[in-house]
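Figure 2 data, in text form.
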Amino acid sequence: MEDDIESVVWSSGQISDRVSELATELNYDFSIESTSSSPVFVGVATGAFVFLSDLVRRISFPISVDLIRVSSYGFGTLSNGNPSISSDLKLDVSAKHVVLVEDIVDTGNTLSRLIEHLKSKGASSISVCTFLDKPSRRKTVVKLVGKGKFYRGFECPGYFVVGYGMDFAERYRNLPYVGVLKPGCYQEVSEELPKKKMHTSI
């Protein structure tokens, strides 16, 4: 796998340091926020699972954890622009503060869809904690709910990155760092996949 990586953007050490900083921010904010119930940290599967795991182990206040799955990328490098909920929460988030944990916020379409979905379930406020943020590609204004805040690990340049839970065609999730794929790898993997599963439009 490492031979497929053109360059490393963030090392495992840099990632660990930044996740600790995000957890410190969350610990402080929730220490001064009065709430009658434990916040629910909702990880967006599958890309956020590594980030979610590292983050919650640094949280010092009581929380619940759940996962939600949304279909947006398929096996391509670009969002298909029509995200849908494919696996819903098991926990009740009514009247609770939700921290939505994402691997990357790109166009904002998926995030907005998730926020509206959680709002419809009665969440009293919704924060977003994303590992990476690509504001240069934003197509949708992301509106948080209640006293929700936006936390981000790193601002990501416009290229497609993998590792630390993020994939291309379900590969590279287990890389401990974030890197850029060599251009030839897109074509090589694409040729192995059914064409109907490739999403090339935003």
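Caption note: The chain has a mean pLDDT of 86.
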